[in-house]
Amino acid sequence: MVYIAFQWGNGQFSFFNGVIRARVGYCGGTKSNPIYRCLGDHTEAIDMDFDPHMITYEFR
């Protein structure tokens, strides 16, 4: 899912009913200002706010 987030960008998760907001970025690591082509030891990450009454966190 994270790979998809970086390919689609922030706004593309909005078409899922129940997704309120999605933000992509990098976490962990020691490199200052990582970018997609030069992550260093960072990991791609997604932060997603959703309504659990409309969508679940389960992978199917």
TrEMBL record:
One of its GO terms (molecular function) is peptide-methionine (S)-S-oxide reductase activity. Residues 12-58 form the Peptide methionine sulphoxide reductase MsrA domain. SUPFAM superfamilies: Peptide methionine sulfoxide reductase. The keyword Oxidoreductase applies. The keyword Oxidoreductase applies. InterPro entries: Met_Sox_Rdtase_MsrA_dom, Met_Sox_Rdtase_MsrA_sf. It is an enzyme of class 1 (oxidoreductase). Pfam families: PMSR (PF01625). Its EC number is 1.8.4.11. Keywords: Oxidoreductase. Belongs to the MsrA Met sulfoxide reductase family. This is peptide-methionine (S)-S-oxide reductase. It comes from Leptotrombidium deliense. The lineage of its organism: Eukaryota, Metazoa, Ecdysozoa, Arthropoda, Chelicerata.
